[in-house]
Amino acid sequence: MVVFTDLDGTLLDRATYSYAPAEPAIAHLRALKIPLVLVSSKTRAEMEALRARMGITDPYIVENGAAVIIPGGQDLVLGGTSAAAREALRLAATASGVRVRGFGEMPLAEICERTGLTPAVANLAVQREYGEPFVVLDGDVWELTAALHLLGFQVTQGGRFFHVLGGCDKAQAVSALTAILEDTDTAGLGDAPNDIGFLRLMRQAVIIPSSHLAEMQEALPRAMLAPEGGPAGWNLAVLALLNPLHK
User: Fold this and answer.
1) What is residue 116's DSSP assignment?
2) pLDDT confidence of residue 224
3) Residues 6+ apart with CB under 8 A from 154
4) What is the pTM of this model?
């Protein structure tokens, strides 16, 4: 088995970014030598720091599927550059008349306020290589999305931000990684619309309750629903998946 998981609002508490309630299931995965692949909108710098704290050495997917990082191996880069994403966002906003504010325009204090991150962690979050998170200040995000599509870019929605990406998403990255892994039995956990694509690829998808629950259940009618939100629900869901009675 390989377990794929989103981070914010799923394995990490949305407010505190703690994964402490999930530590029993993480330890159980480690004991069974089951890979835990982190799939997130976070940057490489953020995820390297997190993986070090968690003691995880498995491959991981950064910036909504822009790259698959394989420790000790060849990274798979699927997306374009952050500079290209920012320029596309600027052009699409002008063409659609939608007012946006991207990460690149935000001072560190604003990022901390919008995310709840400490300045040290926010400094890791701004080290983007591939995409650009943004908020919509005024206008229709769907008109902006259409304008970005004409430029060859796409938009996905996370828990706090929209993200503009160049020709990639979490599903493509997960598919690329599973193609080179020997294990084909997969489970995945997520809480937001940008997780739907990769969860559809899983043998067993798990929805972590959030404000997007209705949309997630409509898109994933056969998915298992975790008993509660955040890392506590993640912990219970993963332990249930690992229980032979639930196979």
Assistant:
1) -
2) 97
3) 145, 148, 164, 165, 167, 169
4) 0.89
